Structures
1.
Amino acid sequence: MPGPSSDSNIAMALAAVGTAAIDAGASTVERDVLDLFDALRDRLLRYLLSFSLAPSDSEEIVQETFLALFQHLQRGKSRRNLRGWLFRVAHNLALRKRQQDRRDITASTVTWDDIAVDPAPNPEAQFAASQTHNRLMMVVNALPEQDRRCLFLRAEGLRYREIAGVLDMSLGSVSVSLGRSLARISRAAER
């Protein structure tokens, strides 16, 4: 028959196993968040820059988004469609930041040239590419904000259903928006 010291040894062993299980769970969450951070950080950052936020603000929102993901996963919440979840959280944080900046009346502007640079082999090709780029960016900038958001999210590889979830719109509206935007861009590219 086990004595009192045997019971305390069993209790200590169970506590150690429980702590190890919690640590293993935490490291799995940390590993999952780090894997998603490595895979989606740049995409989220590009999307956030489309809100005309300062790059430092966009970086901060990316950090806040992944912190929210870590807390979400630690609470044992759903792991379903985490990519869409991340874009939705980043989208909402960016809208909040932009509203705050409007209140502060100091919104920073980011040009498309700050986001994407396409080196060309010679000056003539650079000039032609620059003209095309400027024409296309004028078309993109002239799109209604909702259409631009759909376009940027699609460019980041999100599926229509994910875009609908991020922007809180119907699947049909996403399809119409992207079709309309791509038609305008195609017409401008043909000129």
2.
Amino acid sequence: MAHSPVTSTAARRYAEAVFEIAQRDGTVEQWLNQLDVAAQSVSDASAVRRLEDPSVPFEQRHEAFRGLFKGDMLEPLNNLMGIVLRRRMLQIVPGIAREYRRLYNRQAGIVEATATSAATLEPDEVAALRQRLETMTNKKIELSLAVDPALLGGIQVRMGDLLLDGSVRGRLERLREQITSGTFTH
């Protein structure tokens, strides 16, 4: 699902506010986990429709959302979800969780990377790739995986603005560019 700039901006603002609260309260890790749960719980469109149904009293909808946490929800998160529910903006929750994780990672010195391969990587390949990236950056890497058969083979890794392209498709495109421009390196 595409995110509008307004939704992204709002998610960032909410995430920055709750990150400050979490730092103040010493609950940074709890927020991280609970925002992930909240984001997961609103990933189902039918659940969102039920939770945002104006024919159901707000307190009932809020209580239903709270029930997803089995009584373990941080009170400020409960308040945030109440605001989001009242405004019928549950679609923003995954963005808040993503932005919060970005703030958390930046503070913890963790670099986010996405590895895209032509086929699913084996667990030992993922571990080796993570180790190599951590050695290369001298930072802890949070690695997301994606599969794109159009790569033909190999792997692409994106870390922020940096793209490491070791894919067969990337090599073929570079070769085509060299042939077209007549610039060969020996």
3.
Amino acid sequence: MHNTVADVRAIFAGMHERGEHIDTIKSGKMLEVQGLAFVADENNIFGKLNHEYADCEVEWFKSMSRNVDGLFHMWGKKVQIWDMIADNNRNVNSNYGYLAMHPDNGSQTDKVIATLKRDRTSRQAAAIYTRPSIHEEWNVDGMSDFICTNAVMYNVRDDVLTTTVQMRSNDIIFGFRADMHWHLWCSQMIADAVGAKLGPIMWQVASAHVYSRHFKLIDAYLEEGGRVDHF
């Protein structure tokens, strides 16, 4: 039996009520669950997804450009987190389209599709997002971008594609929403290419966390008696 998004809400809400916050050097106070695994059966955990922005981000990922100004042009303004982590030339490591699809990073989705067409039950259909050299490359030229997703696995059983997203770190507010939107698009693209139905997206995170600036969303969830559809 797998945890669901509703279970994840309950876990973090309970921790918040009990005051189980930790202090970090870099990020201040936060809630954290280590080794969290769940079925990503909803698009957001706390708060609302901005679909217009999420669509822009997916389009930028699909462009495979590492330069954040492409996203800012699509969205019509700067996005604070991408602006903060970009290097002096406005480039980042974490354009997921570049990592998953670009020839310079192995054309991995093409290889995933080819693997599943060759062997429907293969366990080798993996897109590897991070790399050993990230330890040196995360802060080159003023950048601050240590890739959050380690790898994504794609398995087909009974003509249903299951996606397993494996992450080192995930902010379950903004981070989960944006990443989930991308993986829904990417998984549907792969499912269509191999003639499978889109199945569940499984989420596995070494550090799932909520920063103190977002505690108000958990407070609102608790005050509204568990409703999440309008705050």
